[in-house]
Amino acid sequence: MSPSRKVTGFTLIEVLMAMAVLALAGISMLGLSSENTRNSVIIEEKMLASWVADNKLVAIRLLKKWPPTHWQKEEQELAGRTWYIRSRSVKTTQDDFRGIDVEVRKSPNTESPPLVIMQTYMVQG
């Protein structure tokens, strides 16, 4: 090679550094993608559970009758899943006015925290 000819291109160290930077970026993107997928499942469950709770509150309003003051349990199918619902009425200072509580869980175990808790108020009659 003559001294006047200029060599162009990347050195081995430059190529290795570029590959290391790309590998780190790829690993972090993979982690973000995994977390995003996990969060999507949780959001879907909470959305479906809120629909179940909302449906229960609508059913109570259509009956125009308060649920009992003790927890009443039932199961409901929605989106190919079984949801476990608890509902009750809570006395207030007004005799014709009560609070209504509805909880929805993925399992019948009432020790686990509910996915959704909805509360509303209802006048008798």
> How much strand?
25-35%
Give the CA-based shape.
rod-shaped
**Residue-averaged pLDDT, rounded?**
89
Number of strands: 4
Sheet having the most strands? 4 strands, antiparallel
**CATH superfamily placement:** GSPII I/J protein-like
- End-to-end Cα distance, whole Å, is 100 Å
CATH topology: Pantoate--beta-alanine Ligase, Chain: A,domain 2
Rg on CA atoms, Å: 29 Å
Question: Please, how many helices?
Answer: 1
What is the helix fraction of residues, given as a range? 40-55%
Helix/strand class: alpha+beta
Reading the helices and strands in chain order gives HEEEE
CATH secondary-structure class: Alpha Beta
Order of strands, main sheet, comes to: 1-2-3-4
Low-confidence stretches: none
Tell me the number of structural domains. 1
List keywords for this structure.
alpha+beta; Pantoate--beta-alanine Ligase, Chain: A,domain 2; four-stranded antiparallel β-sheet; 1 helix; 4 strands; rod-shaped
Q: What topology does this entry show?
A:
Blueprint: H1 12-63, E1 72-78, E2 81-91, E3 97-105, E4 116-123
Antiparallel strand pairs: 1-2, 2-3, 3-4
Give a description of the structure.
- The protein is 42% helix and 28% strand.
- The chain has one domain: GSPII I/J protein-like (Pantoate--beta-alanine Ligase, Chain: A,domain 2), CATH 3.30.1300.30.
- It is built from one helix and four strands.
- The protein is of the alpha+beta class.
- The model has no long low-confidence stretch (mean pLDDT 89).
- The protein has one helix spanning 12-63; strands at 72-78, 81-91, 97-105, 116-123.
- A four-stranded antiparallel sheet has the order 1-2-3-4, with helices on one face.
- It is rod-shaped.
- A hairpin with a 5-residue loop joins strand 2 and strand 3.
